[in-house]
Specification:
Structural class: mainly alpha
Number of strands: 0
Order of helices and strands: HHHHHH
Number of helices: 6
Largest sheet: none
Shape: rod-shaped
Helix content: over 70%
Amino acid sequence: MPSFFQKALGVFVEFEEDNKESKPNVTTKASATPVSQASSLAQNPAEAAKFEKYFDGLFERANFPGPDYYEFFKMMDTLEAHIHDEKARLSATFASLSIQGLTKEILIDSANKYKAIIEKDLVEFEKALNEKASVEVGQRQKELQDIEKKIVTNSEQIQKLTKEITEYQQTISKLKAKIAEEDSKLKENNNGYLTASKAVTSKIVSDIQKIQTTL
């Protein structure tokens, strides 16, 4: 049967019967509207069950001496299986606890005190949430900035290396052209030398024969 807290959160989510006790984690999330918060709980019954246990424990730890609003809603939950009509159940619960000293004034006053406890807890929760968010978001921002700086540095290095590679390729093309030119000149000189040396050698041989036959 749904408890007081399941009914309170039931606007947002349907609970499973077997819920393990847990406390709400302080997680960094973007601020949400009541509609988006309700949608978030509806999509995650375990999260809603966690908050049910948390607020139940919060009320139990703050329970004031004597019968008050806490005992009142607990008895309301117990009697629901037997008294389905809510008005009749309210009257029966109040009548039973009034024997123990509960009055309408105590009931309303204690209900406002539990409400104040939740409001105080909300302030502390949001403070812790904001502090954690500040630390975690700050760390993520620093990581983001570091990565962005590395990207800029690497991009600059890539541009520099690309420019150097282009310049090297141009230099290689010029050197190949120069090598080809020099090789051509060397071959031309070599061919010219061989031709000239053959001509000179032939002339000398011819002159030696003439000298031998003439003189």
